Amino acid sequence: MSSIRIGTRNSRLALAQADWVSSALASLDVETTIVEITTLGDRVRDAPLGPHLGSSFFTKEIESALLNNNIDVAVHSCKDLATRLPDGLSIVAVPEREDPRDVVVTGGNAPKAFGEDSSGLNSPFRVGTSSPRRKGILAVLRPDWTVVDQRGNVPTRVAAVDDGLLDGAVLAAAGLSRLGMLNRADIIFDPADLVPAAGQGALALQCRTSDTLVCEKIALLNHPISHAAVRAERAVLRKLQAGCQAPLGVHAALHQLRTEAPEDVSVILHSAVATPQGLIRNELEGNLADPEGLGSVVAEEIASILGVSTLADTSWAGIPPREEGR
Length: 326
Known about the structure:
The chain is 29% helix and 24% strand. By secondary structure, the protein is of the alpha/beta class.
């Protein structure tokens, strides 16, 4: 087999993720080449990524390159990937998941002694994030904080805090960890409180379904339990027709691990939806034998509480995901 072309965004974090995949494949004697691709989300830096720009902000161009045979495998942050994939593309592997939690970098404004407890922060406290999910849940968790829009890559957002432009920035622990910056996390939220985005902390390795040889190589990097957990989380979004702007968090917390087989893993699937009327939380205990079934049950319970069929029936959850493919 010739060198496998790995497609990735050209941010520092994305390149670190692609380098990890390249190294993992090298350990299996598979040669690789990294191809950097600029996405819409990378080009639009000075404005929120609102519904008028569509969806798949950080993935569409990479998926197009995959469909056009310009790359062989795409490395995505799983939480950026649409729940409905273009026809002909599949998530072939989800490597073992990193820390899924959200954290706050404060630039020294919150002593390390606070650990996972954010209750000691003094008001006013201005914290940055562009995520509707984080904004909506934090409005309930920390009504004394002022949450403001903040976009940019991880180092840029941390630098804004260090420069005193904000008191803190909400970031994914996994991104900091992959950049060797996890020591900057001053506050670590319990994922049952600030429920992470579906797939947060996981990588999704996407290939052309028809490319059997590449799929076989990439599948060697799959971690079955992480993949099953992500499938359950993404099933909630898919059933609810939740797009990337939906203020929805869902996380499969591993509750009991008896073997390495997904069907023997007990999980608690936590979810939280920030509505104009307040925060709706839900949790369901089950196992990963049928991840999509578990996620569908949670989605149905959320829809029932909201009194809708899907989030597409609301005026506040953003545009639904694109319809092409599955």
